[in-house]
Write a structure and sequence with these properties.
Blueprint: H1 8-15, H2 19-27, H3 34-47, H4 53-60, E1 65-70, H5 76-91, E2 95-100, H6 105-117, E3 122-125, H7 134-141, E4 146-149, E5 159-163, H8 165-178, E6 184-188, H9 198-206, H10 218-233, E7 242-244, H11 250-261, E8 269-272, H12 275-287, E9 297-301, H13 305-309, E10 315-318, H14 321-336, E11 345-348, E12 351-353
Parallel strand pairs: 1-2, 1-3, 3-4, 4-5, 5-11, 6-7, 6-8, 8-9, 9-10
Antiparallel strand pairs: 10-12
Helix pairs in contact: 1-2, 1-3, 2-3, 5-14, 8-10, 11-12
Length: about 350
């Protein structure tokens, strides 16, 4: 016959205290003397008591869960970030509820509403839109602890963790320039940028016109780094070498890469702005039977597993993805505990991992 599950009342009787006192000790709220606390904990252990999370949440208003809205959990970037979040959450006794937006704001809004209904104690979100995010502003106004990862939202003053995309991309392109390359192509998503076309953005950035970069999508920030590396080296920007996929799609990246490499004045080197773009670019390179690095030098943003398996290996910019997730989770837990620091932005440096995909021009 199965053993009856111990209740708070059972623990209270065994410890010689009231049910209310046992509830405070086991729920982790209110004041109880050290002697009574010790008696309750010993009785709970002896009886094999397991706390009722739902009951505790009704009393404390806390569920000890964190909600996460990721852009694409199939993407290795998010997989590593989620592992970092999980490491910190688990170490602090928190559970995770993870949702996926597929980079669609409608799904992101639904995910945020779902997690709010589940009464998570705070959220970590990768916003799909860096300018129109009323649902996230509403969370902030309601006092829900919120941390953004990878991207900022205009006017939303909350904690944020991201890679220093501009500096990392500048480093990647400088590496190609140092090898003698002057015709360097770039393949990037470059999803909507409200203030004009890619050509006008290139012209403004190349002229040194100040550009608000914080709320740009990562691919636009990496384009800024590409431009800066050219400016520092005194190499003029050729707009024909910039190819816009327009979506987070390897197929779209393959199409624009093939077009770039088939052009009359094709580049001698290529920079791709993330793992999805790199996957599409490699399909095009393979289909055209280009040899790396003798026909084309290549540097990719994001160090995906297959890049080290190829021969030669692919030189990449490696983001501190695990550390980003851990930092975001720590910041969120601090807010849940009531810390009132001004909103913080943590930009983490990325690392250039040199392999065999870059040759002298």
């Amino acid at each position: 016959m199965s053993k009856t599950k111990a209740t708070i009342a059972d623990v209270a009787r065994a410890a010689g205290v009231s049910t209310a006192t046992a509830g405070r000790v086991l729920g982790g709220y209110g004041y109880t003397s050290d002697d009574k606390k010790d008696n309750v904990l010993k009785a709970a252990q002896a009886l094999g008591y397991r706390p009722n999370a739902l009951a505790r949440s009704l009393i404390t208003g806390k569920t000890r869960t964190l909600g996460v809205v990721a852009g694409d959990i199939q993407n290795p970037f998010y997989a590593s970030v989620l592992r970092g979040i999980s490491n910190v959450a688990e170490a602090n006794g928190f559970g995770l509820l993870i949702t996926n937006s597929d980079e669609l704001q409608s799904r992101e809004v639904h995910s945020v509403e779902l997690l709010a209904q589940k009464q998570v104690d705070g959220l970590i979100v990768t916003p799909s839109d860096t300018r129109r995010a009323k649902h996230l502003h509403n969370l902030r106004n309601m006092g829900v602890p919120l941390v953004l990862i990878d991207r900022a939202v205009a006017g939303l003053m909350v904690d944020r963790v991201a890679t220093d995309n501009i500096a990392a991309a500048e480093q990647a392109v400088h590496h190609l320039i140092a090898a003698g390359h002057k015709r360097i192509g770039i393949v990037a998503e470059l999803v909507d940028e409200e203030r004009g076309s890619v050509d006008s953005f290139l012209a403004r950035a190349a002229s040194g016109e100040p550009i608000e970069t914080e709320t740009l999508y990562p691919s636009w920030q990496r384009l800024v780094g590409y431009i800066r590396a050219h400016r520092i080296a005194g190499i003029p920007i050729d707009p024909q070498l910039t190819r816009r996929a327009g979506s987070y799609s390897a197929q779209a990246a393959e199409v624009v890469t093939a077009s770039l490499l088939a052009s009359e004045k094709r580049p001698t080197a290529l920079f791709t702005t993330d793992g999805t773009m790199s996957e599409g670019a490699m399909r095009a390179i393979t289909h055209l039977q280009f040899s790396i690095p003798s026909d084309l030098s290549l540097v990719c943003f994001d160090d995906v597993d297959w890049m080290s398996f190829l021969r030669p290996g692919i030189t990449t910019i490696s983001q501190p993805r695990l550390a980003m997730g851990e930092a975001a989770a720590r910041m969120l837990l601090e807010r849940i505990r009531g810390e009132t620091y001004p909103p913080r932005t943590v930009l983490m440096p990325a690392e250039l991992v040199e392999r065999g995909s870059v040759a002298a021009a």
